[in-house]
Amino acid sequence: MSPEVGHYSLILALTLALIQSVVPIVGARRNDAALMAVGTSTSLAQFAFALVAFGVLTVAYVASDFSVANVVENSHSLKPLLYKITGVWGNHEGSMLLWVLILALFGALVALFGANLPATLRANVLGVQAWIATAFYLFILGTSNPFLRIAPPPPEGQDLNPVLQDIGLAVHPPLLYLGYVGFSISFSFAVAALIEGRIDAAWARWVRPWTLVAWMFLTLGIAMGSYWAYYELGWGGWWFWDPVENASLMPWIAGTALLHSAVVMEKRSALKIWTLLLAILTFSLSLLGTFLVRSGVLTSVHSFATDPLRGVFILAILAVFIGGSLALYAWRAPALKQGGLFAPVSREGALVLNNLFLTTACATVFVGTLYPLALEALTGDKISVGAPFFNLTFGPLFVMLLVAVPFGPLLAWKRGDVLGAMQRLMAAGLAGLLGIAAAFAWTWGGPVLAPFGIGLAVFVIVGAFTDLAERSGFPRVGAGVAVRRLAGLPRSALGTAVAHAGLGVTLLGIVAETTWSSEQIVALKAGERVAIAGYELKLDGVVDRQGPNYREQVARFSVRRGGDEIGELAPSRRSFAARQTSTTEAALMTRGVSQLYASLGDSAPDGAIAVRIYHKPLVLLIWLGAVVMVCGGLLSLSDRRLRVGAPRPAKAAAMAQRAQAAE
Amino acid sequence: MTRKQRRLALIGGALAVLALAVALVLNALRDSIVFFTTPSEVAERQIKPGQRFRLGGLVETGSVKRGGQLVVAFSVTDGKASMPVNYRGILPDLFREGQGVITEGVLEANGMFRADTVLARHDETYMPKEVADALKKQGHWKDDYDKAAKGAKGAAVQGSMKDGKKQ
Q: B86 with B73: CB under 8 angstroms?
C-alpha cells in the first residue's frame, strides 16, 4: 500500500476538522439540529481517517518500507516485530500522529456516547475539539510530516535508539497520551460552556467521567514511565525531576484538582470559577508539556532532535489556545451565577484547601522546571534544578496536603464539624502512631523523619477506610450487615476510599525506598562475593550471547540469604551494532514488595566486572499504589449516577436561560 | 459568619498557602541550585573549594586512567583549560574519550574535582547541549562533530547490510 494513502487520509482528516470547527458551533447558536448533527458525523469520519493514516504508517514500519523517510530514520529490518510497531511512536513525527489519533478518538467517543448531553453542548464541545485537532493537523502536515518520502530508497534503516527497544516503552507513550490528550475534552467542555454562557451542576456531572478516564490513563502512564526508568536506566532511580517527567506530572496534579473541583460543582454548584480555570489549566499544561519535549529547549533523554520551526509553531498553538480560552473566560465570567454558599470548615472548604495545595504544588514544579530556561534566556547562566529543590518545595506542600486528606470525606457539606471528624479519625491516628513507633523500633539510629513518613502513610490508608467504616456502621453492626451496606453505597464513595488509600500506599513505598535502600558498587571477579542487607551475592561467571540485533554479555549471580540459596540474578550489557551503542539490562529479584537490583558496568582490564547492587525495600509499593489509585478511579467511573443523564430542560426555560446569558 | 467574613477567611487562607509556597521556593532556589561551568570558567568565577557545581566539557583524549575498585581519573577540557577529575563508580554507557561529559561534584583544595555523579543524559547526537553551547562560545567547536557521528552511523549501516536479512 502506498504511504501516500496515509498522507491523503491525514489531509482529509484536516478538512473534516475544519468543517467540524465551524458548522456545529453555528448550528448550536441557531439551534439548528441538522447543523449540529454534522459535528457527530464529522467526528466519526475524522477519527476513521486519522486511524487510516496511523495504520498506513504502522504498515510501512512493519514492512520496512524504506521509501518513507521516517521509517529510514527510526527503524531497521532486523528489529523484532514488536519494536517495529512500537517504533512508530518512538520518534517525533509518529508520536504526533498518535497524539492527533487519540484527540480524534476522544472526539469520536463524545460523539458516540454523548447522547445524553444537550445537543447544543455536544455540538460546541465537538467544535472546540475540532479547533485543537485542526491546529495539530496543520502542525503535522506543515512541520512534522511522517509521510515524507526518500527517492531512491536506501537499502537499510538507521535503527531505533536501543534504549527505546523495550516493552515498557511500548506501552508508556500511548497511556500517557490517552491521559494528556484526554484532558482536551475537559478543556472543550469548559470552553463550550463559556461559549454557551451556561455552566451548572449538570455540566460538572457530564465532565467528570471524561476527566476521570483521562486522569486514570495519565496515572498509569506516569507510573509506567517511572517503572521503566527504574529497570532500564540501570541507576535504581525511579523519578529524576527531569523536565519531561515534570511536564507529565503537572497536568496530573492539575487534573487531580480538577476532578475534586468538579465533585463540588456537581454536588453544590459551587467552585465554578475554580473548575473552569482548572479545566483550562490542565490542558494548557498538557500543551506546555508537548512544547517542552519537542521544541529543543530542553536537554533530556526524551527530547527529540528538532528544528526551531516546530518550537515556534507549538508556541503559537499554546498562545492561541491558552490566551484565547482565558480571554473568553474573562469575557464570560460575569455571566456566571453565584453558586451554593458554604462555611470555611466544610467538605467544600476542605476541597478548596485541596485545590489550593495542589495548585501551589503544581506551581512549584512549574517554577523548578522553567526557572533554568528563563535564567538561561535572561542571563546566559546555565543552572540545573534537581531533586534537592523539589524535595524542599513540593515535598512539604504534599505532606501537608496528605495530613488533610483523611479529613475531607468525613466533613459534611456546607457546614462541617472538624472535632467530630477528628474523633472519628482516632483509630486512624492511633494506627499512624503505631506505624511511627514500629518504624523507629525497627530502624533505630536511622534517619529521624522517615518514621513520621511511614506514620503518615499508615494514617492516610486507615483514614481512607474510616469513611467507609462510618457509612457501613461497621464496628456497631455485624460484618454481614456492614458488607451489604457497603455494596449499596454509591460507588464513588468506594472509589474515593480506594484512591486515597492508593496515595498512602505510594507514599509508603516512597519513604521506605528513599530512606532505607542500600547500595554496593564493586568490581568483582568470578567466584567473588558481595554482601548487602542480609543477602549474599556470588558472581558465578560471565557469558557472551547473541540476540536478534545485539551482542550480550551476561553476568550470573547466585543469591543467598542466611546461607540458603534463594535464586539467581543475571544482569547484562547489550551492544547494538547498528548504532554503536550499548545498554544495560538490570536484573531484578522480587522479595515480597521489596527488590534486589543488580546492574553491570564496564569490565576492567584485569577481568573484574563492575557491578552495582541495590536492595530496595518496599519499592514496588510505589507503582502498586498508582494501580490502586486507578482501581479507585474505575470504581468511581462505574457509579450509576454518571450513567444517568440529566433531564432535558423545557424549551421555554432553555430560551429564557439563553436570553439571560446573552444579556 | 457573614458572607463577607467568610470570603475574607477564604482569601486569607489562600494567601497564607501561597505565601508558604513562595517562601519554600525562594529558600530552595537559594540552597539547591547547581551551576554549570567549564574548566576555564572555574578560574574566572573563582569557585572556592568545597562548593558544589557541575563541570562540563570534553573528556580529554588519553587522560582516562582506571585504578582498582572502580576508581577512575580523567581530565575534562574545553579547549582552553582542563581540570583533573576523580570519580569512584560505574561510568555511564555513553562515556568515551573525546566525547562530551557533565560531572557533578565538589572542587577540592588541591585543584582536583571530586565527582560523585557523571551524567549521561544526552540527546541522540551524544553531545550535551550545555557543553556544545559552551564549546561554541569558546570557538572550540568543530562542525564535523556532527558529521563524524553521522558518518559513523552511515558506515555502520553499510556494514550491517552484508549480514542483514530483510524480513
A: yes
